[in-house]
Amino acid sequence: MLDGKLEGNPEVKVSNIAKIEEAGDGMLSFIANPKYEEFIYSTQASILIVNESLVTERPVKPTLIRVKDAYSSFALLLEKYKQMVGNKTGVQQPSYIPASVKMGANVFVGAFAYLGENVVLGNNVKIYPGVYLGDNVIVNDDSVIYPGVKVYDNCVLGCRVILHAGCVIGGDGFGFAPQPDGSYKKVPQIGNVVIHDDVEIGANTTIDRATMGSTVIRKGVKLDNLIQVAHNVDIGTNTVIAAQTGVSGSTKIGKNCVIGGQVGMVGHIHIADNTKINAQSGLSKSITEPNTSWNGSPAFDYKSSLKSQAIFRNLPDLEKRVKELEDMVKQLLSEREGV
Questions:
Q1: How far is the CA of 128 from the CAs of 113, 122, 150, 161, 194, in angstroms?
Q2: For position 319, what pLDDT does the model report?
Q3: 279 vs 301, more confident
Q4: CA dist., res. 257 & res. 290, Å (int)
Q5: In terms of DSSP bridges, do strands 16-17 and 27-31 run parallel, antiparallel, or are they unpaired?
Q6: How far apart are CA 107 and CA 161, in angstroms?
Q7: Over the stretch 136-152, which tens digit does the pLDDT of each residue have?
Q8: Chain segment 162-201, per-residue pLDDT in tens
Q9: What is the pLDDT of residue 302?
């Protein structure tokens, strides 16, 4: 599976996985970061996955599996392990599943789940307890929806989508028209949310349905916990966004962007491909040039912002020097007038 090279006892067996400093007999662990290499001589783990480049200075107890990339190989094992322990199938009771629902093979529906009319579940879909799927929702193959998730009517999830606990997909966008008397009239939100393949969305993140058309989360996007994505937003392929970020309505984010935590974006702007935005930055205008980094609020070029921060830290000293120069000029002028 790992295309590795074995060193040590080929008959050793393991039944659990642990961190290298905590692993005991019958456990498997790994080393990818050089700062943990000291543990290779003291660990009680039975098997270690290591980089093929690792050089040992003395004999080690565990059986070694040498691979090109220990971190990626360990992640693959964790994925397989999780599939084994989470491979539930069948329908638990009580749950509500109308006759119009269509289910593929090896589907799991947990207790207290509610599925609306004409819901479609693909093969190997896992719906955990307490999930709500509105009418006409489509969940494609191998997707996992964890407890307490709400997916409103007409939303579409691709293959291998993961929605963590408490997500709300397809709630109404924040659309209200101001009235002459100062009140606000609700604008009906009749669109949906479309989530493409291989997307993972963290706990309690909310993605609003479009006013018209679709709010779109494209292939490979990873969203952290507690993110707000507003109506008609489009997030490009393989973009990652950290926690507590807010994306206002109709903003278009390009592919392969990296967006830090607590970033705020105004609506109706475009973010170019491969943009990096530092945590707590605020974007008030579009970023049109790809492969750039941004920082601050309002955000501007990352390197320029660092220079500005350095100047800002030195302001007290600069103020003192300016005052000293002013005093010197006054003294020189006074002496000149005296002459």
A1: 7, 15, 11, 14, 21
A2: 86
A3: 279
A4: 9
A5: parallel
A6: 15
A7: 999 999 999 999 999 99
A8: 999 999 999 999 999 999 999 999 999 999 999 999 999 9
A9: 65
Dihedral sign for Cα atoms in the order 129, 210, 142, 91: positive
Round to whole Å and give the CA distance between 123 and 141.
Answer: 5
CB 109 within 8 A of CB 115: yes
Is residue 300 very low, low, confident or very high in pLDDT (cuts 50, 70, 90)?
Answer: low
* From 4-18, 31-45, 99-113, the region with the lowest mean pLDDT: 31-45
The phi, psi pair for 330, rounded to 5°, reads -60, -40
Amino acid at 239: T
The Cα 14–Cα 9 span in angstroms is 12
Question: At residue 282, what are phi and psi to the nearest 5 degrees?
Answer: -125, 120
Helix, strand, coil percentages in the chain from 3-state DSSP, rounded to 5: 20, 30, 55
Catalytic residue among 164, 196, 231, 270: 231
Q: Which residue has the tokens 């800002």?
A: 312
State pTM to two decimals.
0.81
Q: How far is CA 14 from CA 1, 11, 62, in A?
A: 16, 10, 11
Q: CA-based Rg of the chain, rounded to a whole angstrom?
A: 28
Residue 303's alpha-carbon distances to 169, 174, 264, 306, 311, in angstroms, are 37, 35, 20, 5, 13
Lookup result for tokens 């500005």: 308
CB 204 within 8 Å of CB 226: yes
Token pair of 140 as six digits: 């494609």
270 belongs to the catalytic site: no
The amino acid at residue 21 is: E
Least confident residue range of 105-109, 143-147, 153-157, 294-298:
294-298
